[in-house]
Amino acid sequence: MNFLGHCRKLITRRGIWLSRRCYSRIEQLKTERRSMCPTDLIRRGAVFGIYYDPKNTVNPYGKLTETAEKFNQRVCGRMEEMLFVAGMPVKKGEIRTLFDLDPDLCAIVIVGLGEECQGYDIAERMDEGKEAIRQAAALGCQELQRLNTKIIYVESFGHAESAAEGASLGSWIYQTHLSKEKQLIIPDLILYEDCDWTGWQIGLQKAAAQNLTRQLMETPANELTPSMCAQNAVEILCKSGINVEVKVKAWAETLNMNAFVAASKGSCEPPIFLEISYYGAHREERPVVLIGKGLTFNSGGINLKSCDGMRLMRGDMAGAANVIAVCRAVASLELPINVRGLIPLCENMPGCSAMRPGDIVHAMNGKSIEIENTRNAGRLILADALVYAQTFWPRFILDVGTMTEDVYRGLGTGACGVFTNSETLWKYMEAASMHTGDRVWRLPLWNHFTHLITHRENVDVRTQGDEYGESCKVAAFLNEFVPCGEWIHLDTYGVMYEDGDDPKYLRQGMSGRPTRTLIEFLSQMVCQRPDEEKPNKPC
Questions:
Q1: Of 444, 428, 445, 442, whose CA–CA distance to 518 is shortest?
Q2: Distance between CA 141 and CA 128 in Å, rounded?
Q3: pLDDT for 498-517, tens place per residue?
């Protein structure tokens, strides 16, 4: 019997008495919840799903997921009864909280998943089904979290990995500096009656990596100076068996990393260069090089930013946080790939020794750079890191950082901008973003933009060039320091911060994007067919 028929049967057989009984019980529990301490009432909870398609006349009130239907039968149909009284249908993104259904579960949350047969949407460049699962798992866990639930059982909704991602990302909140009585409980998440334990663990690892990125990005700049960030990286990565080498200013000067050193001169905090090594394959195999922009605070230097412009600059080290989190996840997932992470760390401050507009410095490869605007410190530190990366004869190079506001104006928070000289890398990055729901969009890497930053007669490269096309010019600038091989650049400025509205599984604050996409990208590269990868000659 379908759900509608069951509801009609309940109404005809039990009539108003059933509705009044359930309604009275719900109101009684709501009153008790208000009057009692939540920690005394709520300990364990569960999240289930329900499909709803307004065009479906067979099940106009929706259809419970397979797991939810089994639980409903276990409680003799009482979940459907209370759900019908609580209000039907449950549309996509809506929730219904039910109490007193099971002696072991103090609260049950039913979340709307939308249509049952959702899949890849070519227009949206996203797997809508997986994204709906993430949203549902997050909404359910957040509702139970507000009720001080310590243990939450989450069904797989048909894809355990996505459910784990949504549940873990949605439950996380930065509350390091809150007093304990104001902090929310971060619940333990358990997969409910599903055999896809591997998928669930992979989802938890990916979400944990993004949450680590969020944690580092949210940390105030006075608590995450370059030296403190290096110390945190060592503590985090060494526990996972990853080697971390900490290079100091003298080392950078010896290698003529003058662009990197110049960006740090305005701060009393010395620059630090992190070199991370993970060997998941044979040591002779060429590594993937990940480079993260590590400006732990960007005041703009002499070209000082406004107060509002500096409000989120504690997160300007998002690229560094991405690389640290991705390396830890790669080690936790034991991916058979060699990874070398390079993170130049410094602050851009307006000190007495700070770089000035019009200064010219020579990068590690000997090219001269005219500093037109001191706010552009990020591209300076990445330039030397890109040149240094060539010493490892990399399989390919990936750099990531919050580079320009232009990409935010163009794409908003919908996607991060991607520039690459490799069609293969772009295809894998696009496929990874479709799977994770954290989208990317390719932007042009044309000679037109290269001309705009290299046409000066007295200098090799300019940091800014003409007024427009800033994100494309940054990519062109960085490309000048990639002499050979495949390379992909991600500008993540637009996705640095979330307002908590879309997607629902990321609360307001630093987003940690695109950590999961990078992990999925590397996972797919592990499975890359040999004929798809063109060997690069060493520089």
A1: 428
A2: 20
A3: 998 889 999 999 999 999 99
Query: Which 3 state secondary structure label does DSSP give 342?
Result: strand
Alpha-carbon distance values, 130 to 127, 134, 166, 507 (Å): 6, 6, 10, 19
Superfamily of domain 227-529, CATH level 4: Zn peptidases (3.40.630.10)
423 by Cβ neighbours in 10 Å (0-12 / 13-18 / 19+) ranks as exposed
Q: In the chain, what are the helix, strand and coil shares in percent, each to the nearest 5? A: 45, 20, 40
What was the pLDDT predicted at 229? 98
Residue 1 confidence (pLDDT): 47
Q: Is 305 a catalytic residue?
A: yes
Separation between Cα atoms, residue 59 and residue 242, nearest integer Å = 53
The DSSP result for 346-401, as a single string, is: EEE---TT---TT-EEE-TTS-EEE-S-TT-HHHHHHHHHHHHHGGG--SEEEEEE
Cα 509 versus chain centre, distance? 12
Q: CA-CA distance, 477 to 449, in Å (whole number)?
A: 9
Q: How far is it, in rounded angstroms, from Cα 29 to Cα 10?
A: 23
- Active-site position among 125, 150, 286, 305: 305
To the nearest whole number, what is the mean pLDDT of the chain? Answer: 90
Report how far residue 99's alpha carbon sits from residue 357's, in angstroms, rounded to the nearest whole number.
64
d(CA 187, CA 199): 20
Per-residue confidence band for 354, with pLDDT thresholds at 50, 70 and 90? very high
Strand duo 95-102 + 243-247: pairing? unpaired
Q: In this predicted structure, what is the pLDDT of residue 501?
A: 86
Question: Taking the domain 3-195, which CATH number applies?
Answer: 3.40.220.10
How far, in whole angstroms, is CA 526 from its chain's centroid?
A: 21
**Catalytic hit among 214, 379, 513, 516:** 379
CA–centroid distance for 503 within its chain: 11
CA end-to-end distance (rounded Å), the chain: 69
Cα atoms in the 13 Å half-sphere on the side-chain side of 481: 33
Q: What distances in angstroms separate CA 490 from CA 186, 250, 421, 471, one per listed residue?
A: 31, 29, 12, 10
Q: Supply the DSSP symbol for 45.
A: E
For 435-500, the three-class secondary structure string (H helix, E strand, C coil) is HHCCCEEECCCCHHHHHHHHCCCCCCEECCCCCCCHHHHHHHHHHCCCCCCCEEEEECHHHCEECC
Residue 4 confidence (pLDDT): 43
Distance in angstroms (rounded) separating the CA atoms of residues 294 and 297: 9
Domain boundaries, the chain: 3-195, 227-529
Q: Say yes or no: do domains 3-195 and 227-529 share a fold.
A: no
CB within 8 Å of 211: residues ≥ 6 apart: 168, 169, 172, 512
Average pLDDT over residues 190-212: 96
Q: Token pair for residue 515? A: 């950590």
Q: Which two tokens stand for residue 227?
A: 């030296």
395 is catalytic: no
